[in-house]
Amino acid sequence: MSADSTRNLLSALLLGISFLSAAQPAPYVLEIDVDQVIHPLTTEVIARGIDQAGREGATAVLIRLNTPGGLMTAMQEIIQKIVASPVPVITFVAPSGGRAASAGFMILEAADVAAMAPATNTGASHPVVIGGGSQLDPIMKQKVENDAAASLRALAQKRGRNSALAEKAVLESKSFTENEALENHLIDLIAADEQALLAALHNREITRFDGRRQKLQLAGAEIRHYRMNTRERVLMPLIDPNVAFVLLILGVLGVYVEFTHPGLIVPGVAGGILVILALMALTLLPINWAGAALILLGLVLFVLEAKLASHGILGIGGTLALILGAVILIDTAMPELRIRWATATAVALPFAIITMFLLRLVIQARALKVATGSRGMIDEIGVARTDLAPAGKVFVHGEWWNAVSTAPVREGGKVKVLGVDGLQLKVAPADDAGKDGSL
Asked: Around Cβ 311, how many Cβ atoms within 10 Å?
């Protein structure tokens, strides 16, 4: 083979290798941030992220945890999604100073790889359930604790971690620093940041939940952040029940203003939007219907206060019902998922004052005599300009009218309007005062 042929062959091989390298997509890791309380919307975000990573052929999913915990039901759905993930899942407690407590610890242990940043902590996984663990009877409480402990023990054993110590995080609310977690085989490594974590995991062989062994190829992997859809972007800030409650009350107030002052339009439209957004957010959380009933009762009492002379008793009762209803509206013992007393009071008091004031104005306005149109003529006093026996002419409201009297009235006599029939008035004799014809 000649030198030219050899060079041509090598060039073709190099070109083919370059083409194959260019055709193969660059590895990437999809990062999902969990930096607040774990709730159903968190479940939706993680589920969509894992599905997206599977469709797009991501090398791995990186779930960055910095959470005080959350609802057990949401946590269980997240764990189910992690263990069934088509791509490896890495959980990472970060940044420094962060934590993965309670439900966050169980999610940390469920992943193929568990890691923590320096100066972080995890654990304290005593179960918090809908309705509040402290409200359960001792037997039911023990059942919930044992169920959570068994679930965590099974996860830790499957992942080859210290299941006995992990169980103590549930039964004894044990917490661990990153070094304690690493020394006791609760996590796999400590890394300063995401890039250092991926570098340390490159070429590491892991065992997936179904028993398959897989080597992680993370050299030069790009980290792409999960992009929330429109619904998630709108609802994520509103999932705080304090924010949702404020929006709900402002929305109700806007709708109320529109009903009491028809034609303003803007308060009604804005109020309707706020009510819908607040209800969308609140329906993602466990609702205590007794709390919802108290809020409704408070609104009814405000209306009754404006109609009845209760000397403020109904208004005070409505305010208390609104505050108590708000405080117990979210059915969980998680402090981060409950409406605070300060928020409930700060919203309820101004709302009570404004609604009762506006409603009283409306009721007073409706009680006033109509001053325009045919109804405005009723009970008006006029003067007979001709004898009424029984028909004739009267001068009422600055106008001449045809009139029919229920009794004879002499010219110049006072008449009182009883009704209007088209262009004719029905009148009756009034007091004898003013018979000189003066108005």
From this structure: 9
CB 163 within 8 A of CB 208: no
E strand or H helix at 393: strand 391-396
| pLDDT of 8 strictly over 60 | no
The H or E element that residue 419 is part of is strand 414-421
Q: pLDDT (tens digit, 9 = 90+) per residue, 134-165?
A: 455 567 667 777 778 888 888 888 888 998 99
Please provide the DSSP assignment of 312-346 as one string: THHHHHHHHHHHHHHHTSB-BS-GGGS--HHHHHH
Question: Tokens 């992690």 appear where?
Answer: 82
Number of domains in the chain: 3
Length of the chain: 439
Do 346 and 251 share a domain, yes or no? yes
- What is the pLDDT at residue 433? 38
Q: Measured between alpha carbons, how far is 58 from 152 in angstroms, rounded to an integer?
A: 27
Q: Do 210 and 293 have their domain in common?
A: no
CB count in 10 Å sphere of residue 137: 8
Which residues make beta-bridge pairs with 330? Answer: 287
Contacts for 222 with CB less than 8 Å, ≥ 6 apart: 26, 27, 28, 29
Two structure tokens written together for 121: 């902590």
Task: Look up the domain containing 136 and give its range.
Answer: 16-227
CA-nearest of 117, 92, 278 to 190 is 117
Q: Identify whether the C-beta of residue 75 lies closer than 8 Å to the C-beta of residue 100.
A: no
φ, ψ for residue 30, nearest 5 deg: -90, 120
What integer is the mean pLDDT of 412-424? 84
For the record, the structure tokens of 195 come out as 């890039």
CA distances from 276 to 42, 230, 249 (A): 20, 15, 11
Short-list 58, 37, 46, CA closest to 91 = 46
Distance CA 30, CA 225 (A): 6
Token digits for 309?
């002379």
> Domain of 26: which CATH number?
3.90.226.10
Is the bond preceding residue 68 a cis peptide, omega within 30 degrees?
no
Phi-psi region of 160 (alpha: psi -120 to 50; beta: other; left: phi over 0): left
The string of pLDDT tens digits covering residues 320-336 is 998 999 898 887 767 77
E strand or H helix at 401 = strand 399-405
- Ordered DSSP codes for 65-118: E-B--B-HHHHHHHHHHHHT-SS-EEEEE-STT-EEETHHHHHHHHSSEEEE-T
Question: Are residue 34 and residue 58 in the same domain, yes or no?
Answer: yes
- The verdict on 387 and 361 lying in the same domain is no
